[in-house]
Amino acid sequence: MTNASSATTINATEAAHFGGLAAEWWDPKGSSAMLHKLNPVRLGFIRSAVDAHFGGDGKARYPLLGKSALDVGCGAGLLCEPLARMGAEVTGVDAAPENIDAATAHAALSGLSITYRAGEIAAQGLGQFDIVSSMEVIEHVNDPAVFIGELKRHMKPDGLLLLSTPNRTPASRIFLVEAAERLGQVPRGTHDWDKFLTPDELTALLNDAGIEILDMQGIAFSPMSGLHLSSNMALNYILSARLRG
Amino acid sequence: MNHKADVIIIGGGLIGLTQALALAAHGITSHVIDRADQASMLQAGFDGRTFAISSSSYKLFEAIGLGDALAGKGCPIEKIWVSDSLKPGSLDFAPAEDDGFLGQMFESRFLRGVLYNAALESDAIQLHMPANITHKSQDSGRASVHLDDGKVLTADLMIVAEGRQSQTREEMGINIAHWQYDHSAMVGAIFHEHSHNNIAYEIFYPSGPFAVLPMLDADDGRHRSAIVWSVDAADAPGYMKLSPRGYAAELEKAMGGILGQVEIAAPLSSYKLGFHHAANITAERLVLIGDSAHGIHPIAGQGLNLGLRDVAALTEVLVDGMRLGLDFGDAQLLDRYSRWRSIDTLLIAVSTDGLNRLFSIPGKTASAVRRFGMAMVQRAAPAKAFFMAEARGESGALPKLLQGVAV
């Protein structure tokens, strides 16, 4: 399949790299250990964003009941499954078929009903969703502006967009690319630092696409409290956004 | 047939049932399995067993909706009077005026009844008792338990609350650090001539601590207290063979006549004292709570309260996880529970163990050191505040339920 957007958003080398990791995705002590530790932190942000946007009280077990969600670059379903448990009808898309195989198998194990699709987001013929999310993906695509356009196309008019990505700073270079990959916290070859977007750059890209940011927070690390939400965005940041009205 | 709930709780004792009720209060469903037939246990008369419920444990019960059932049924402890062999230099712990009481004494049988009835009424709790487990397993997908009536129960997480001799803990190969004290505790209840005035007495003898804990007066108006009397393990059988009258005479002697004449109010029982502490309190889709995780010397009445702190912390961890859409067996959640509880339980275990050892050293010099130490604690406000908070169960990072609020 050779359509224009697959050439721009999927990076073939990177997709193959993640496919190789698929089986290990769900092992909390495996090569995705950092993602498992990151997950509760970013879910904390997502839960607050969901309650703020859709008017929840922070306590309900199923705040997304009746809502649809699309996770782009879903990996083996680390975000899809929590969204499904919160009550959403979830569709996960990933470029690597191996990831989708791992995700499908794990959802069955978890007793969750989630629609998984392998391939390019633009080629899926999907409609619009209440929530569109893409965690740690935009730093891997060839053209972030085109990618944001694809995300926007799948948002309902009152939909919520959730993005997280590493910042391009000396700290992220040392911590995420050099140290974490060498220490085995993150698989080697995961990150290409030069492609990281700063919060300002990402804000400008979203703005150009007619998307306004609702909230943005850093995900920081400290030896005492581990990974946590913070005003410090030097390493990684997560944001919620909506279409400008 | 397959029955799915959010969690499976193995053990339907005070800790297991409280765990089920605390989760149910937040919409989390459970299977509770116990070998014993609770209903028939509840029909028995007063067995002499009592628990000192710390004020933070009581707040937990209130926060999960048991306040009405418990109100007025416990005897408040307003003061703790500590003494070294009834020698001068005693130590009082009394809360400040507006600070409430230090804890309440409840009959074990009564607490069990309140918890059991609340669990029976809860839609979120399925009780399987009496029931025997023929097989249990956990894997990356689920925890499951097969019962001898053919039922298969599954859940995201298995919570082990089966007490000191935890079979599941052994099957999981979880090591425990443990030792036996050369002491046995004799427990029971007494009638006594004078009112206890809501004072708990802790008298430290070289042979072991002796605690007299205030209970509500009996229906006929007679004054009652519970006793926990530690003696050399070799001496316990001799004490237990005494006639009720002979035993009462020994008690009067040990109490120095503080409460006047004494009479035995319930059958006595005795058990060897030990200390144990599990090396790990979590495994794949499994957590240990209560005595399955740690058992301490009952010197400060902290065993059940420590277990209830496990319940409060685990409830908060699981409810927080649920609201993030995480699997109840998620390794990150179990890690949080483990980090939260490990330091706290070890600190309390070691400090009560140390306190016991300190008071167990015979001889005049040791006694002088103890009395000096007690006098120092009496004068040093921060140390006293620490002991008070510890007795109340209020030190350490406090789970919300122990502050009396739902998660």
From TrEMBL, chain A:
Q: Name one GO molecular function term.
A: 3-demethylubiquinol 3-O-methyltransferase activity
Q: Which InterPro entries match?
A: Fumarate_lyase_CS (IPR020557), SAM-dependent_MTases_sf (IPR029063), UbiG_MeTrfase (IPR010233)
An example GO BP is: methylation
Detail which positions bind S-adenosyl-L-methionine. Answer: 42, 73, 94, 135
Q: Which reaction does it catalyse?
A: a 3-(all-trans-polyprenyl)benzene-1,2-diol + S-adenosyl-L-methionine = a 2-methoxy-6-(all-trans-polyprenyl)phenol + S-adenosyl-L-homocysteine + H(+); a 3-demethylubiquinol + S-adenosyl-L-methionine = a ubiquinol + S-adenosyl-L-homocysteine + H(+)
Please state what class of enzyme this protein is: transferase
Query: The organism sits in which domain of life?
Result: Bacteria
List the CDD domains.
AdoMet_MTases
For this UniProt record, the keywords arranged alphabetically read as follows: Methyltransferase, S-adenosyl-L-methionine, Transferase, Ubiquinone, Ubiquinone biosynthesis
State which pathway it belongs to.
Answer: Cofactor biosynthesis; ubiquinone biosynthesis
Q: Which SUPFAM superfamilies match?
A: S-adenosyl-L-methionine-dependent methyltransferases (SSF53335)
Please state the Enzyme Commission number of this protein.
2.1.1.222, 2.1.1.64
The record ties this protein, via NCBIfam families, to: UbiG
Q: Which family does it belong to?
A: Belongs to the methyltransferase superfamily. UbiG/COQ3 family.
What protein name is recorded for this chain?
Ubiquinone biosynthesis O-methyltransferase
Upper taxonomic lineage:
Bacteria, Pseudomonadati, Pseudomonadota, Alphaproteobacteria, Sphingomonadales
Gene transcribed to yield this protein: ubiG
TrEMBL record, chain B:
Q: What keywords appear on the UniProt entry?
A: FAD, Flavoprotein, Monooxygenase, Oxidoreductase
Record InterPro entries? FAD-bd, FAD/NAD-bd_sf, Ubi_Hdrlase_CS, UbiH/COQ6, UbiH/COQ6_monooxygenase
Q: Supply the name of the protein.
A: 2-octaprenyl-6-methoxyphenol hydroxylase
Q: Which residue range or ranges hold the FAD-binding domain?
A: 5-341
Tell me one GO biological process term: ubiquinone biosynthetic process
Q: Which SUPFAM superfamilies match?
A: FAD/NAD(P)-binding domain
What family does this chain come from, according to its entry? Belongs to the UbiH/COQ6 family.
Among the Pfam families in the record, one is FAD_binding_3
Q: What is its EC number?
A: 1.14.13.-
Please give one Gene Ontology molecular function term for this protein.
Answer: monooxygenase activity
